[in-house]
Every structure is written in structure tokens, then in C-alpha cells.
Amino acid sequence: MAPPHACSPGATQRLLLHAAADGDLRLFKRIASRLDGGEGRLKEAVEAVKDRGAGALHQAARNGRTAMCVYLVEELQVDINAANESGATPLIYAVLGGIVYTVSYLLDHGANPDKPNEQGRAPLHLAVEQGNCEILKVLLVKGADVDSSSDCGTPLHIAAVKSHDGCMKILLDHHADCNKVFSTFYTPLIAALMVRSLKCVKLLIKAGADIKGVGTFTPLIAAATEGLTDFYKCLLEAGADPNVPDENRRKDVEILLPVTSRIPSVYDWSVDGIITYVNKNVQATNLEPEDGTCTRIGAFAWLKMGEGMKALTDAHLCRMLCPDWPKACYREGAAHMTDKACDAFLDGLKLDPANMEIENGLRPENKNLPRRRGRSLPRTRQPPVKALLEEVLLHAAFEGNLRIFRKNVRALDEGDGRLADKVGAVRDSDGLGALHLAAAREKLPVCHYLVEELRVDVDAVDNKGETALTFAINCGNEDMVRYLLDHGADTEKINNDGLTALHFAAGEGKCKIVEILLSKGAYIDSLTTGGTALHCAAYNGRDAVVKILLDHHADAGADVKGIGKEIPLITAASKGLTDIIKCLLEAGADPNVRDCLGHMPIEVAARCGERKAIEILFPVTSRIQSVSDWTVDGIINHVKSLPEVKEEDFCEATLDMGKFQGREAVKNKDYLGAMNIYTAAIALNPRDASLFSNRSLCWLHLGEGKKALMDAEACRMMRPDWPKACYRKGTALMLLKDMHPMP
Q1: What burial letters (b/e) apply to 301-322, b meaning 16+ CB within 10 Å?
Q2: Cross-strand bridge partners of residue 372
Q3: I need a labelling partner for 439 at 20 to 30 A (CA). Which of 32, 169, 298, 633 fits?
Q4: What are the start-end ranges of the H helices in 238-368?
Q5: Which domain of life does the UniProt lineage start with (predicted)?
Q6: Residue range 76-118, pLDDT digits in tens
């Protein structure tokens, strides 16, 4: 007889974090004691268990397990301000989880309200980003810095960008600085104008926002540039001057003079001398309008003085006079670092591909290209023009600048009829393409051009298997979601985590988008390694989404395919989600279903200390014969009296469930689902040869010959005399032979 399965050390640590996330204090204490090994260093043993730097307190905080937090903070005294690999503290996890009580508890017990993550974003920034007014109030009451800076400005900047007028009002009531400048000229008022949030604009003006702005880019110019008539009127009514004179130019020259290299042709290198020189050059240009050198020098001088528009005018004239002169292209680009800059620099590169001055001038256009997970586009020197074109193309998609985007697309066109493939192949280091970026930033015109004119693949995935549809769902843009669905986006495409678009929207609590997906034919009971959409909604406590799914006849008792996953009712019972429990029961969920250990929902609720959940389940649960006192208190006392579940038994039961689910998935020809199940099972017991054999079979059906061979060889190493292991290796080699025939 084969020895019983044992959990690997990695599995034990995962179970500890899982218990913390689920709030199962009894299981957590038992596993922690085992990890400690009787050395009396329980705190150190628990703190050593991390997933990418996130420990048990992070997991408990994110899921609102306040009782678990109390044990960790007050009994074990773990570090309440410990940060994960990206600098996020348990408080940040609690803020992202949206649990007000947990946030308040952590703050009351020493959590630093201003400790930022690696991006410089403190809990206050993230609360505003989430639009969570209640958590925002708690943080401010506990002393969070209302004007703390981050990579995207202050909390007020974020409220403006996200159009969260409710959060903005709270921040302003707490005396947030409405004139704080970020990135040269970016005030909250400019941010509100750029995202067209009239409510936020009015709140900021009422709070005393400076309608003059900073430098030459004023709120009035921003409104006029974007064609925002209502905003323009609002600013004028508030006293904005449409005829602001250039009174500050002399001061700008005074600031620039000490750090500017001397211009050889300016004999009097002083503030007055430079101003006089520029004026003379303007006169010279007027006298000799066909002298390209004069206009180029004039553009350079205006640029040094900060007169962007005047510099651009002279540079335009210079290019008209000398269209084949690369320097003219550079001057025009440097004069106005906007979409016109890209035009000028790109034209200059075509004339002189090796011109480093032009290349370096173009690169600042890309400095704001978003960094994902701390990475940016790699700088490629071979060939420089193509690399720059691709960088600018992605930046244009991100900014929604269709004119520049089209120009870069044309530059990639080699006339071979493969333009869509070439545009689709332009990716950043995380696999993000133009359509991903445009969808994430809600740039519908760019998406329209990509999908309908270029006909790029609407279901193209990044390195995580995410499509543009997932990005549109994440930003909550209903119009973008509808557009992508209307143009062929696949609702059933599964990402690397085993989630479809409906799973993702349900887990994120995007009610309207869930309804849109269902109206467009998304399969409500799609069963993947992530469970069903109902499971995702229940696990994340999305009451409103659960109701929507059940109203659309989701299977309330659907089994869940995946290691360590349970049906929605058991999940809700373990978390004490009373509203969800009621909805599930009303929809016909079986209260007598059992988990992998044979426990019913009412027992699971009792084990997790969720009395209210027990009270709801009690009237509809069949009596358990082993419980002599069939009352709520009797059930609680019965569960407390039961012996601890041994870790080996838990692993054994979980593995048995996984093997059963894997066999069922293979029987139904769901080889991708089965592969994911066996992968999770192998993580629990990497010494089971049958798991590698079964996963090798899945890889074969998925056409992954190399992976099938690797699993088959692992299987043979464990059981060299097992005929099935030899068979698996042989079939894998045959597949590879068919894929790569000998010449």
C-alpha cells in the first residue's frame, strides 16, 4: 500500500496564509504551532511566512478578518507596518479591501496612516482612488496627511482625475491644498478639466483654486484646447482673464539665465540683453522673412525664454523655408512638446535617422508612458527609428492622440498588407499592446481605428492572458465594454488565472458591467479553475452582484472546479456573508452540501465563529445526528468539542477532491481546466507520479509537446517501472516528432 500523501513545506505555509485570509483562527493557530515546532518563537514563525512579501496580517486585513488581526497584532505582536515586495502595508491591504472596521482597528493599534508603497501612494491616495468616502474619513480623522505627494500627485489630484467629487468634497473640507502643483503645471483644477469633471471643477473654484494656473498653461487654455464650452464659461464667470499679458516672461528669463548655456550670437549675456536680442531677431525675421537661419535662431531664443507658442510660430516658418533641414524639424519639436512635437521629430528622423539631437528630443514625449509593475519600455538602439516609432505609437494610444497614432502607423507600413500584424506586434515589456492601453485609458476613437480600420485582434492577450476587454472592465468604462463586445470580444476567453470577463467583473463588483456581459451572451455558469462568476462574487463579498447573477438564474449550487475551492454557500458561510447566504438559499442552494472534509455550511460557519450565519442556516439545515443539542449554541459547542483536523487529513481530502475534479474535466474534454487542477494538486504533493502523468496527458491534448515530455520524464523518475509513465513519454515524443519532422 502506498504511503499516505504528505503536504510539502510550501503547502503548509500556503495553508497558513489561506487560514488567515479565511479568518479560520483555530486552523491558523494549529498550523502556526506546527511551523514553530515547539521552539517558543511563534511570532517569528508566523512572520517568516510570506507570499511576495505579504504575510498573514496582510491577508487577514485584505479580507476584513478583524478577529484574526486582533490575534496577530495583540497576541503575537507582529509588525503592523510590515511591507510586502511592492511596499504595501496591512493598512493598504485593508483600504483596498474596503473594510472600514478593519482599517479603523489597524489605525487604533499603531498602523502608520502615511506609510506609502513603492509608488509613493499612501493609504489616503488609495482610498480616494477607490472612491471609498467612509475609509477616507477614518484616515483623515486618524491624522493622515491630506496633502501627501505620490507619483500621481496628492489625494486631491487623484480625486480630480477619477472624478470622485464626493471624495474631493471631504478632502476640501479637511483643508486640502487646492493649488498644489504636480509635474510643473498640473494642479487639481487642471486635472479636473482634463477629465471633464464639471462637478469637481466647481468644487475646486468654490474652495479657492487659482484660475490663473501656473505658467502659460492656464485652466482657461486647457478648457479652450479641449473645446469644453461649459467649463470655459464656468472659468470666465469665476473671473478668469482671457487676455492675460506676458508679465511673467522677464522673471522666467531671470530663472533660466544662470542654467542656460551662452548663445554665441548674443553679445550682451544678461536678462535685458537676451530680451533685446530676441526682439531684434523678430525684427530681422520680419525684414528677411526668407532667412531660415533667422527664424531658427528666433525659435531657439523664444524657447529659452519659455515662449512656446512664439517659438512654434518661428519654427513653423523655418521649416517652410528649409523643409529638408533636420535642425528645423528639431526646433519645431522642441518648441511645443505636444502632438505637433511628435510630428516634427518623426519627420526629422526620416530625414536624418542618426541625428541624436532629434532622437533625444523625441524621447521626452514618452516619459509619461505608464509603468506597469515597476517596468517601462526598454530602450533599443538597434534600429533607433523603429524603436522610437513603437514607443511613440504606444504613448499615442495611451494618450488617445489619434492623429499621432495614425502617423506612426503609417510609418510602420511597408506596403506588404500586414499592417494590422505589425501594429499588433508592438508591445511593452508586459505584453501590453495599443488596444490594451487605449481600452485602459478609455480612448474610444483609438480603439475604433484599431478594431474597425486596422482590424487588429480584439482578443489579443498580454503576458497575463488579459485582453482589452479585461482592461475596459477594470476601469469601469461601460461604453468601452459595449464597444468591444459589439466588435467581437470573446466573453469566454480565460486568462492565466482561470478567469473569464464575467468572473473578473463579478469579483470586482462591477454590477452594470456584469449586466452588460450577460446581455451580450456571457455564459453565467462558466466553470473554470476560478469557479463560477457566482463563486467569485461570493468570495469577494459582492452582495449586489450575487443578486444580479441569481436573478439571471445562476446555479446557486454549482460545484467548483479547482483545488481548495468550495461552492458559494460554503464560501459565504465561512466569511459570515449573511446577505449572500440569504440570496443563495432563496435561489435554491442546498444547505446540506458538504465540503472536502465532509462539513456542512452550518458547521463551517460554526468553525469560523460566524454566529449570525449559523442562525440563518439553522432553520433550513437537516439535523446532524452527532449533534445532541440541536440549537445554535449546541452546534457551536459541538464544533468546538471536535478534534482538530490533522493537516495530513486536510491535504489528503483536498488532493482526492482535486483528482476527482481532474478526471471529470478530462472526461468532459476540458483539458485546460484539468491541467490547472493537476498543477494545483502537484503544488500540494509534488511526489505523486500519477499527478504528473495526468498533467502530461492534458499537455498532449493542448498541443504542448515539450511540457508533456517534461511531466512524463518526471513521472518516470518517480516510478521507473510504471508502464503508464513509459507510455506518457512515448506519446509526448511522438507529438514532438510530428511537430518538428526530420528533414
Answers
A1: bbbbbbbbebbbbbbbbbbebb
A2: 375
A3: 169
A4: 249-256, 271-287, 292-304, 308-321, 326-335, 339-351, 356-362
A5: Eukaryota
A6: 999 999 999 889 999 999 999 888 889 999 999 999 999 999 8
